[in-house]
């Protein structure tokens, strides 16, 4: 395609330069889902954060984050994806979705009462069996690069279900209000998100909706309120990073695997909220966990895997800090 043609395509709103990710974004929007850009090759939101907010344009009446800016508007989507081949984020709350995120156990087996289960899928099967509603369910399903699955369901009317981690069971997270998912056909270094069942999105089964109702759902996660006045945000952020990395460095042998996941999850939440750069967070964590390597047969690869798992996990429960630093796209 010539340059002239490209310009013509982008100004006329045609989709010539969009690429497969942009086309997938348009398709998702047409199906009623609210989309927004994630950094290419990653699972981190790419829209500007509060610190970089100039208070103009979409933010003229106050800063809007990814959950507010996620859209079905084909013009906005075309504009975003003409700019870069962003990965595709779907804001689950505004999309009216509840996505059950089933993770792989990576060789571990579940604790009681899910003994024997090797992954979130098997735990969910046990829950369904116990509820007298054995699966599988015919609904839209995506496989993730880390060996997990996303089951897409329509949120029930009424109760506002929020994102949660581990409240349904081992290796099962729920993405709803306050959360987002990386959608097919996004790519990360480790692989691609693929739609493995293109069935339309089914209603959330009643027994699952009941298991997730606010009274029973346990601790709420998702974006925390932004309470820090501008100017103190950087110091507050630095204090969190310092506290988490210090705890990680001081973790006793035997508790270090857990400590790595926990610290990385905390910083991952800040990365997801746009307050902290992903690479920077990883570097801080790695330096704090350096002393773990070579002790108790712990390898560098294992340490890095824990940190990456924790970061990725935390990023899906974003925490925003008012005034904190952020990167890129408007
Ligand atoms: Zn803004």
In short:
The chain is α+β, with helices and mostly antiparallel strands and 330 residues long.
Write the CATH architecture name of the largest domain.
2-Layer Sandwich
* Rg measurement, Å: 20 Å
The CATH class of the largest domain is: Alpha Beta
Bound molecules: zinc ion
Strand and helix order: HHEHHEEHEEEEEEEEEHHHHH
Number of helices, counting only DSSP H or I runs of 4 residues or more: 10
Please, could you describe this protein's structure?
This protein is α+β, with helices and mostly antiparallel strands and 330 residues long. It folds into three domains: 3-91, no CATH class; 97-216, Prim-pol fold; 233-315, no CATH class. 35% of the residues lie in helices and 14% in strands. The chain is built from ten helices and twelve strands. Strands 3, 4, 5, 6, 7, 11 and 12 form a seven-stranded mixed β-sheet that branches. A three-stranded antiparallel β-sheet has the order 1-2-8. α2 (19-30) runs antiparallel to α4 (74-83), α8 crosses α10 (300-315) and α9 (278-288) packs across α10. It starts with a helix and ends in a 15-residue tail after the last helix. Mean pLDDT is 83; it is low at 1-15, 215-230 and 323-330. The structure holds zinc ion. Residues 48, 53, 59, 63-64 line the site of zinc ion (ZN).
């Amino acid at each position: 395609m010539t340059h002239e043609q490209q310009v013509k395509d982008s100004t006329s709103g045609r989709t010539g330069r969009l690429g497969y990710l942009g086309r997938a974004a348009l398709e998702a929007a047409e199906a009623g889902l609210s989309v927004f850009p994630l950094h290419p090759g990653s699972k981190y939101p790419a829209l500007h954060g509060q610190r970089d907010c100039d208070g103009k344009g979409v933010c003229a009446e106050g800063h809007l984050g990814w959950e507010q800016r996620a859209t079905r508007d084909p013009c906005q989507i075309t504009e975003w994806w003409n700019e870069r081949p962003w990965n595709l984020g779907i804001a689950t709350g505004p999309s009216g979705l509840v996505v059950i995120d089933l993770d792989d156990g990576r060789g571990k087996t579940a604790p009681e009462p899910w003994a024997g289960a090797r992954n979130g899928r098997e735990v969910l099967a046990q829950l369904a069996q116990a509820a007298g509603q054995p699966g599988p369910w015919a609904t839209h399903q995506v496989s993730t690069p880390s060996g997990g699955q996303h089951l897409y369901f329509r949120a029930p009317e009424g109760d506002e279900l929020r994102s949660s981690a581990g409240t349904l069971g081992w290796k099962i997270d729920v993405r709803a209000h306050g959360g987002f998912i990386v959608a097919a056909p996004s790519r990360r270094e480790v692989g691609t998100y693929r739609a493995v069942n293109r069935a339309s999105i089914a209603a959330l089964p009643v027994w699952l909706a009941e298991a997730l109702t606010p009274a029973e759902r346990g601790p709420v996660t998702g974006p925390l309120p932004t309470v820090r006045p501008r100017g103190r945000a950087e110091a507050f952020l630095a204090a969190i990073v310092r506290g988490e990395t210090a705890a990680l460095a001081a973790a006793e042998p035997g508790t270090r695997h857990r400590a790595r996941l926990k610290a990385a999850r905390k910083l991952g939440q800040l990365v997801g909220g746009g307050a902290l750069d992903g690479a920077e967070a990883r570097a801080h964590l790695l330096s704090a966990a350096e002393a773990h390597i070579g002790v108790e047969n712990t390898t560098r690869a294992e340490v890095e895997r824990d940190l990456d798992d924790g970061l990725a996990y935390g990023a899906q429960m974003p925490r925003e800090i008012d005034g904190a630093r952020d990167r890129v796209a408007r």
